[in-house]
Amino acid sequence: MAGEPVIELRNIYKDYAATRALNDVCLTVDRGEVFGYIGANGAGKTTTIKILTGLIKPTAGDALICGKSILTSPLEVKGSIGYIPESGSLFDKLSPREYLTNIGRLYRLSDAAIKTKIPEWLEYFELADRIDQRMEVFSKGTKQKVVWIAALMHDPEVLIFDEPLSGLDVETIAHAKDLMKRYAAEGKTIFYSSHLIDVVEKVCTRLAVLHKGRLVGVGTVEEMRARNGSLSLEESLMKLWQDQA
User: Fold this and answer.
1) Residue 64 to residue 212: CA distance in whole angstroms
2) φ and ψ at 137, to 5 degrees?
3) Which residues pair with 20 in a beta bridge?
4) Among 31, 57, 52, 76, which residue's Cα sits nearest to residue 185?
5) Tens of pLDDT along 206-215?
6) All structural domains of the chain
7) Which of 25, 177, 160 is nearest to 80 (CA)?
8) Dmax of the chain from CA atoms?
9) pLDDT value for 241
10) SS3 for 47?
11) Which of 80, 23, 88 is nearest to 54 (CA)?
12) What is the pLDDT of residues 160-207, one digit of tens each?
């Protein structure tokens, strides 16, 4: 239900040698939110994503997804999320059918479900006629569509996006925005990391602003605009970052 915490960052620190990438980050994201996570390059957005998806461990602190700790229950956490990076890695020698079948089996979907979901999602992303082509001939944007399908086909409770629209054409971006709105309406939770402020402004219910590894603002788009008396979110965020310099 709305208001139920689904993602929790609890006093997260992350150090790379002498560099502190994240500094005491605390954040809660509720069920049904499309939550924007924004900041300049190097702010710590991708580091946060890697921690949430279990790719790296925090130096200190913990993160919970659907009540499960990324440190003590990593497999359960990974089973409940769909992750879309800016540029996902695929096995280029495989076809979408072969690759997505393997992904479905990793998530323990039945063979019947896999055979149904793959053509349905390929049709949605206008790739039905390329189901058996080797992906080595696909463009970046076409590969990114397959990455989207791989993240969605097990119907995860939480979607974690790191610049997921990279390489997509205008029509597919519109489809992706519709999907985000639909999933949020169904009670799923979306954590959307991006530097594209105009997209965040249109699709996100709330957002957090990260600057040099620290959270410097959390609120709705309207609250973030009002914070600096700005007409646009971009103007408000620019002022916020300047104030932190």
Assistant:
1) 23
2) -95, 0
3) 15
4) 31
5) 999 998 999 9
6) 5-88+157-244 (3.40.50.300)
7) 160
8) 55
9) 67
10) helix
11) 80
12) 999 888 888 888 888 888 888 899 999 999 999 987 787 888 888 899
